[in-house]
Amino acid sequence: MASAMDEDKVMEFLGRVVTDAGAAVAGLCTSLGDRLGLYTAMAGAGPLTSAQLAEKTGLTERYVREWLAAQVAGEYVVYDGDRDGYLLPDEHAAVLADPSAPTYAAGFLTMMQALYGSEDALMEAFRTGEGVGWEEHSAALFAGTAKFFRPGYTGALVSEWLPAMNGTTAKLERGGEVADIGCGFGYSTMLMAQAYPKSHFHGFDFHQPSIDAARQIAQEQGLADRVSFDVATAQDFPGDGYDLVTFFDCLHDMGDPGRALAHAQQALAEDGSCMIVEPNVSADVTENINPIGRAVVSASVAVCLPSALAQHGPQTLGNHAGEAAMRDLADGAGLHHWKLAAESPVNRVYAASR
Ligand SMILES: C[S@@+](CC[C@H](N)C(=O)[O-])C[C@H]1O[C@@H](n2cnc3c(N)ncnc32)[C@H](O)[C@@H]1O
């Protein structure tokens, strides 16, 4: 006989799903606030009326008022009824208003536009087993991915991750050569270039629009003298004698990450190393039951696994293959020395060398 359902548990879980659905819809409003400059305009401005915010942003007051009501409902913005003022607390501005801040977290929402847009293609891929290539998603994925990862790199790449790569910072201070593979918009490349003006940084990605964006940002940041960005796959990027070859949140997206690592190994200077940055999630699915694990593994369903499948290689890792799988691949590529160099809530950073 079937056991009776626990009605309290049903209602509790229903509440959970309603909360999640609310967050999913509210995410669109967060993305609108991010992309329309509403959070930036509210940051440090004190309480503003909807008319003042509309004037400051050049947007339509009626839409802005509706958006503010949603922000109050989500407790992102505080409403003062006596003054009809809407306040973005400084602590919330630190997370929503400045894409260059290490605590900025609104970039993820830009990705959502692309991922929901890919839902039909993903349904078809589930049925056929074919991939959905990185380039098949809409442009919001490329910009959103860059915005999502940038704060974590800003907060730790130069201050913690590079110093944890044995001897690398001394080489970069003297003047070294670095290849950043799967660089996307190149924020990782440019952060390193800002810190080490005597070195040269070469960003490679197989996605032309990302390389175009990276070149433009490098120009705007005045870094064009020491960074270059070119279209190349991880398996055939040019150059050799690199002191450092980096893979930021991209190795698991590849169909043949082993060949990418083998190519990197051959391109290293004798005492060079690879920095492999991967999401901080576990191969044990029960260890990912937390907000970051949930977001990252869900992104694997929508982007990482389909990307690897579209490359028709021997591997379909997903983004939570775990350290042992990565270490095996590196070992097979001739990178026999391996260590966990650093860790953040979002990333694990591995150092691999011959
Ligand atoms: C998740 S994004 C990460 C981008 C960037 N490294 C970052 O951290 O913001 C993965 C990147 O890997 C690139 N990529 C995937 N497979 C590749 C391959 N086989 N060769 C070169 N680039 C590849 C994609 O074009 C994309 O820019």
Plain-language structure description:
The structure is a single chain. By secondary structure, this protein is an alpha/beta fold. It folds into two domains: about 5-100, Orthogonal Bundle (Arc Repressor Mutant, subunit A); about 110-354, Rossmann fold (3-Layer(aba) Sandwich). Helix content is about 50%, strand content about 15%. It contains 14 helices and nine strands. Strand 6, helix 12 and strand 7 (about 270-280) form a beta-alpha-beta unit. It starts with 6 loop residues before the first helix and ends with a strand. The chain binds S-adenosylmethionine (SAM). S-adenosylmethionine binds near residues 149, 188, 206 and 249.
> Which class do the helix and strand fractions yield?
alpha/beta
Small molecules bound in the structure, each named once: S-adenosylmethionine
CATH architecture of the largest domain: 3-Layer(aba) Sandwich
What fraction of the residues are assigned to beta strands by DSSP?
15-25%
CATH topology category name of the largest domain: Rossmann fold
Number of strands: 9
Report the top-level CATH class of the largest domain. Answer: Alpha Beta
Based on CA inertia axes, which overall geometry fits? Answer: globular
Topology order in helix (H) and strand (E) letters: HHHHEEHHHHHEHEHEEHEHHEE
Q: How many helices?
A: 14
Provide the spatial order of strands within the biggest beta sheet: 5-4-3-6-7-9-8
Low-confidence blocks of residues: none
- Report the biggest beta sheet as strand number plus sense, adding barrel if it closes: 7 strands, mixed
